[in-house]
Design brief:
- The strands form 29 sheets. This protein has a two-stranded antiparallel sheet with strand order 1-2.
- The model has no long low-confidence stretch (mean pLDDT 91).
- Helix content is 1%, strand content 40%.
- The protein is built from 1 helix and 58 strands.
């Protein structure tokens, strides 16, 4: 109402402004039952039954006979789920734990609200969830999933009602779903083997899922095996075999083929067999052609040959014969004949020679015949010269002789290789030396002419001195 130069209050208007001087702060504060509005000097009245308040709705203390509630209002009695406690200056209502309907000052439940689906646990003095409900950590418990006796959430049962069974998903069912069986000891649903739609407690399949898993009951009646065109991949749904397979053991290994397909060497089913194989309509397999064929209609008839095998088709025998200059070794690729051979049976046996080559008696072909042989152009062979010739044009026409080896020289008039002086022809290639003193002889015993200083006897021998009763 009045103040000094330092703005400290000296007096207050209790009647009109409802304020009283507070000496410790030198301020004019609201009287009990009033609160500061901060907009005018006049304090406003607190709600009825409030001794002190902060505004029109929040009490901080109550008049005698009333309790400060948990909503900061003054009540004649504490509301449900709260309890009277003794404060430092007055009585107040304190909220009970969320699970209690009524509680004591120590926070233990005294009673539970059935509408909250809670029952009293007399050992812990807590209001726990009733059967079929779980604690949501609010006052009201929530219902468990269908069939659950106890649970911890809407998706997790901990026990089941009578007639219901726990499944792997921790929910309760009146009967086990597909791929599970009821375990009468554990009183829950256990997984069947991966191939079964339904099974007994021994793991034997009772039914199979033909449409989804592509399985059917085996002849033994205990397993669900893949249907034709599928294979077991150790999961519920069988995997599809490769195209054309009627049966397989995995994605790249067929064991049988559909109609119109044949099992190829790579264990896949094909409509056309690869090169060097033919389609066997009896076995439904691609069978090996003969070693010489590139393609074939059956085991006995080639349809085409491979140039890279050095073979060509014989249209009479329907075999793939080696090309000129090659021979058959019993392998797909023909082998090279010896040089110069146009036809051969091995590396050491030519049958015919290419033009410009001649066959020797060793059954090989040569571009030139060796010494003592001549080239027979008509027969394309090397023919042996006469025994006396070193080289020849024909069998009886010598071109050269060997004085050093054969002791012969060429007689130009006869084109023959005749013995050198002092040698005679004994019908073999190498001439034989005449007896001593002979310049010419017909044998080792008969000289026809003698060397200088020698004389011919009546016995056709050459001597230096005539024998008795003869003269020179």
């Amino acid at each position: 109402m009045t103040c000094d130069s330092s703005k400290n209050c000296l007096s207050c208007d209790e009647v009109n402004h409802h304020r009283r001087l507070f000496n410790q702060t030198n301020r004019c504060l609201p009287l009990p039952g009033f609160y500061e509005t901060y907009s005018t000097p006049i304090c406003a009245s607190c709600p009825q039954q409030c001794n002190m308040c902060l505004n029109a709705t929040v009490c901080t203390s109550c008049i005698s006979g009333y309790y400060l509630s948990i909503k900061s209002t003054c009540e004649s009695i504490c509301q449900t789920r709260s309890i009277v406690v003794v404060g430092s200056k007055q009585l107040a209502c304190q909220k009970c734990p969320y699970d209690c309907y009524q509680c004591d000052i120590n926070g233990r439940c005294v009673s539970c609200d059935p509408n909250d689906h809670r029952v009293m646990n007399t050992e812990t003095f807590r209001c726990v969830a009733a059967v079929g409900y779980f604690d949501s950590y609010w006052s009201v418990c929530l219902s468990c999933p269908s069939g659950c006796k106890t649970c911890v959430s809407r998706t997790l049962c901990t026990s089941c009602n009578s007639g219901y069974f726990m499944y792997i998903d921790k929910l309760c069912y009146s009967s086990c779903p597909n791929q599970f069986y009821f375990d009468s000891l554990a009183l829950n649903c256990q997984s069947c083997p991966y191939d079964c739609l339904s099974c007994d407690n021994h793991g034997s399949c009772l039914s199979c899922d033909y449409n989804t898993s592509k399985r059917a009951l085996s002849t033994s009646g205990t397993r669900c095996i893949p249907i034709a065109g599928y294979f077991d991949n150790s999961t519920y749904i069988s995997a599809s075999c490769p195209t054309g397979c009627s049966a397989c053991i995995f994605s790249s290994y067929c064991t049988g083929c559909q109609a119109g397909y044949f099992l190829a060497p790579n264990n896949l089913c094909v409509q056309s067999c690869p090169q060097r194989y033919y389609a066997d309509s009896y076995t439904k397999n691609c069978q090996n052609c003969r070693y010489d064929c590139l393609t074939c209609a059956n085991l006995y008839s080639c349809s085409s040959c491979s140039v890279s095998d050095f073979r060509q088709l014989n249209t009479i025998t329907y075999s793939c014969n080696p090309a000129l200059g090659y021979y058959d070794t019993g392998a797909s690729i023909a082998a090279n004949c010896p040089m110069g051979c146009s036809l051969c049976s091995s590396l050491t046996n030519c049958s015919f020679c290419f033009s410009g080559f001649f066959m020797m008696n060793d059954n090989l072909c040569y571009a030139q015949c060796p010494l003592r042989y001549y080239m027979d152009n008509e027969g394309q062979t090397c023919q042996q010269c006469s025994y006396s010739c070193y080289s020849c044009q024909t069998m009886t026409t010598c071109l050269s002789c060997s004085p050093q080896l054969d002791f012969r020289q060429l007689d130009i008039s006869s084109s023959q290789c005749v013995p050198l002086a002092g040698y005679y022809d004994n019908g073999t290639t190498i001439c034989v030396k005449c007896p001593e003193g002979c310049s010419s002889c017909v044998s080792v015993y008969l000289c026809t002419f003698c060397s200088t200083g020698y004389m011919l006897t009546a016995q056709y021998q050459c001597v230096k001195y005539c024998p008795p009763r003869t003269f020179s």
